[in-house]
Each structure stands twice: as C-alpha cells, then as structure tokens.
C-alpha cells in the first residue's frame, strides 16, 4: 500500500531571544528529528503528555508552522518546499480539525459561509446553486440540518460546533486530515458521537488521519498504528496491538499505567508506575536519552547516547535497553 504521508527527520525549533538588541540566545526544540509514514486510508495515533510537541508536529506537517529542517511528503510532494500553485493544490489534499471549535470558527461568518469558503477558494463549484447543494450535503453527512446553515457559531453547542469544524475540513474532499485533540473539549457522550462520525467519514471518503490525542482509550479505538512522543521525539512506534499489549519503552509503560481502569479486573491487574524526577526543558534537553532522568532502568550509557532499536517487525523503540526491561 502506498504511503499518503512520509515525514523524514522533521525538526521545529523556536528561537529564544533576549538582550537589548533581542539576539538569539538559544532554541526550544519543540519537534526534534521525528520520522514516520502513514499509509493511505490508515490512522496514526500520536500520543504523549502535554507539552511534548504533538500539536506543533501536526501543524508543521501541514505547513501551518514552517519547519526548521526535514521533509514532509504528502502524496509525494514536499510541503516544506512547496510554494504557489503547488502549495494551493496541497491545501486541498490536507486539512485540520482543531481542538477548540469555538476559537477556530470565525464568529462573524454563518455556517454556510464557513463550510462553503473552501469550496469557493479551490473552485470546486461552478454556481451558487451547486455551492448550496454541496454545503447542504456535507452538513447532512456530519449530522447537521440544512436549516441551520444561516446560523452563527455561538448559536450551537460544543458538539455541534465540532461537527461544523469537521464539515468545513471535509468539504473540499481532502485525502489527509490532522485531528488535533478533536474531541478533548467535549463531554464523553458527545466524544463517542464525534469519533463514530470520524470513523464513518474515513470509510466513506477513504481518508487518512493523523489523530493527535492524550486520551489513550480513544486512540486505541480509532488508530491502526500509534507513535508515542516525549519531549519532541518519538520514543516508540508500532501497531496498536504492539504498543498497547507489549510496550517496550519505559515512558510508554508509565503512560499506559496512568490510563484509568474501568473494570474491577483491570483495577486489580493494573500496576501504576510512578515516575520520579523533573521533566527536562526543551530549551536545553540532555544529550542522551531525554527520559533518562526519570527512567528507573537508565544507566550511564543512556545519559550519553541514544539509538532506535527494532524489537520486532514494525515496532521501533528509542531505547538502549529495549527488549531487556523486566
């Protein structure tokens, strides 16, 4: 199967300035040398604690934030170097669903204008009547009623606003969608509706998703593969089964142990792993493994170097002790 997304050694550093002339003192390494691929029609879940660089990675992949180094190939075209017509064509292929639907929707625009804007910009309709028909069709697919088209975002609930965001993102029939914490601000019952909607739209339109979330249960439900980020780097990546059933990196093990248990059996069997030490700063990260200061298995060699090990086919871990942990 062909790759829809191919991220190669992607970096995003933000300069830290100071002094009278505001010269650069250093860089915050928000995303530091990450690489992965997503096959067409598949879902990659990107997980990690707050501040690890998940959202920055998603925005950099789409070109909303310019990359410092690396390549992002969307269907073979590099987002990092594309300009003009090439970027305009790419914009139709890739879209994003933001975390907060209220702040991402222009409060002065009606639902009709919000959804129809992309169709008009990419010249996907030839008349006003066709535009109205397409807007109504995508609204109905996303669980909205055509009579709501002339309302404004503040007249909807949080779940309805997220449906508007999804309709806007999917109106131009993209191939790749970044879901940046798309359900984290919603109630649990509404989360289930939105997740089911995203799954249905994926099947109907053959979409490829990068699903960014800190909710492991949702990632487990929707994803085919999972990548775990820690302080700007991907420390473990593999299939959903490999990550959730046999995590190999100490950070992934600790992250999964923190997920809530819902049954008595899970509560009895789950062993909480408590991490000690402070989270390093991305402004001046350690030279070796960035998790070494909090890892119960770290040795002197971990603080000096790091490398990616493949514990089994398709299951990669950034850990010198991968496969040797008790």
From TrEMBL:
The keyword Nucleotide-binding applies. PROSITE patterns: ABC_TRANSPORTER_1, ABC_TRANSPORTER_2. It holds the Pfam family ABC_tran. Belongs to the ABC transporter superfamily. Gene3D superfamilies: P-loop containing nucleotide triphosphate hydrolases. Residues 5-256 form the ABC transporter domain. The keyword Transport applies. InterPro entries: AAA+_ATPase, ABC_transp_ATP-bind, ABC_transporter-like_ATP-bd, ABC_transporter-like_CS, Oligopep_ABC_C, P-loop_NTPase. This is Peptide ABC transporter substrate-binding protein. NCBIfam families: oligo_HPY. The lineage of its organism: Bacteria, Bacillati, Bacillota, Clostridia, Lachnospirales. It comes from Eisenbergiella tayi. Keywords: ATP-binding, Nucleotide-binding, Transport.
């Amino acid at each position: 199967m062909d790759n829809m997304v191919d991220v190669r050694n992607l970096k995003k550093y933000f300069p830290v300035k100071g002094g009278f002339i505001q010269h650069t003192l250093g860089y915050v390494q928000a995303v530091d040398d990450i690489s992965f691929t997503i096959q067409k029609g598949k879902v990659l879940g990107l997980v990690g604690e707050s501040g690890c660089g998940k959202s920055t990675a998603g925005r950099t992949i789409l070109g909303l934030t310019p990359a410092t180094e690396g390549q992002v190939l969307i269907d073979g075209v590099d987002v990092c170097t594309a300009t003009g017509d090439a970027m305009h064509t790419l914009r139709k292929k890739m879209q994003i669903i933001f975390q907060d639907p209220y702040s991402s929707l222009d409060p002065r625009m009606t639902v009709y204008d919000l959804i129809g804007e992309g169709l008009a910009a990419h010249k996907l309709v030839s008349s006003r009547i066709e535009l109205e028909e397409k807007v109504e069709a995508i609204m109905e697919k996303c669980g909205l009623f055509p009579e709501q088209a002339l309302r404004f975002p503040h007249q909807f609930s949080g779940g309805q606003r997220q449906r508007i965001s999804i309709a806007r993102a999917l109106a131009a029939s993209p191939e790749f969608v970044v879901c940046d914490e798309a359900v984290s601000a919603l109630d649990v019952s509404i989360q289930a509706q939105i997740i089911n909607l995203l799954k249905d739209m994926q099947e109907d339109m053959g979409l490829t998703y990068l699903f960014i979330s800190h909710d492991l249960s949702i990632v487990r439900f929707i994803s085919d593969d999972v990548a775990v980020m820690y302080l700007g780097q991907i420390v473990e990546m593999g299939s959903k089964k490999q990550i959730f059933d046999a995590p190999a990196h100490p950070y992934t093990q600790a992250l999964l142990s923190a997920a809530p248990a819902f049954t008595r059996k899970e509560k009895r069997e789950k062993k909480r792993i408590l991490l000690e030490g402070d989270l390093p700063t991305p402004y001046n990260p350690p030279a070796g493994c960035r998790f070494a200061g909090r890892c119960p298995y770290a040795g002197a060699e971990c603080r000096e170097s790091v490398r990616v090990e493949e514990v089994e086919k398709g299951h990669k871990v950034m850990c010198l002790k991968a496969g040797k942990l008790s």
